[in-house]
Amino acid sequence: MSFQPSPYEILQTLLPHLRIAAGYAQQIQNKIISLPAKDAGDNFLSAALTDADLSIQTLVEVALLGTYPHFAFYGEEYAQSRNTKYFTSTALGTTKQDYLITLDPIDGTKYYLDGFNNYQIILSILNREQYEAVIAISPAQNCYYYTLKGRGVFKGDLNLDLDRCQPLEISNPRPNILLGWGMAHLKPALEDKYRVIDIENCYSASEQFPNYNGIFSGDLIGWITKRGKFIDSAALAFMAQENGCLVTSLNGLPLTPLHACKNYSYDGAIVANSAQLHQDLLTACQQLITK
């Protein structure tokens, strides 16, 4: 068996490459134009695609193939990538020691196209059961967050190495809840107690709304997503849980092991920074089910 680096060592090795990706994304943001949209149904947020998505994925693929060629890799733009065929696999491994690296090269592509600063680059390390580590880089905010399983969440300026980041502290978060695409029907059950942002109907190209990463900046106290994709919202849910949030399925149960999921995705997730908020979000979901 070949030597298996730790998740920390993997993040440490890839961080310089991710810094380059972040600088590239920020440099071209005000010049970028969208490419023909991906097929994502009516979800215009997921359909957005740019040169930055494709180029950043290529950069990370080159770094991985040159450093850890035995790792499996699944990037959001795998279908269009010229490098997918060179990886050993795009799937989860068969043991806890087999890592799958996932990447969302631009999480929040529509935000990015509209000139907002809350897009991010998310890279995760998974085994067949669970996440081992996640790093989420915010190029326009010159910072990043990372977590290792059981270690909490750390934040640092983009120029800082992992060991110089500080434990994340959130003071006085805004009482905002984000409802992901397809969850707008839950808004009436929640808006008496919270400011509810229904991204499907509220999104504006002229006014910035929180992305899921607002749970780390203090712009959100929780969210509900209909489909937790491994590359983005599920990875951020893992980070939120490491930072003390309650994270469950839409029926209040613990999230299933990754290998039990289909299409690189959970069937929905609730994320809440308190037990009371989690109960309120869960109640809203259950009311829908019983109707």
UniProtKB/TrEMBL annotation:
CDD domains: IMPase_like. GO terms for molecular function: inositol monophosphate 1-phosphatase activity; metal ion binding. InterPro entries: Inositol_monophosphatase-like (IPR000760). Keywords: Magnesium, Metal-binding. Mg(2+) binds at E76, D104, I106, D107, D232. One of its GO terms (biological process) is signal transduction. Its cofactor is Mg(2+). This is Inositol monophosphatase family protein. It comes from Waterburya agarophytonicola KI4. The lineage of its organism: Bacteria, Bacillati, Cyanobacteriota, Cyanophyceae, Pleurocapsales.
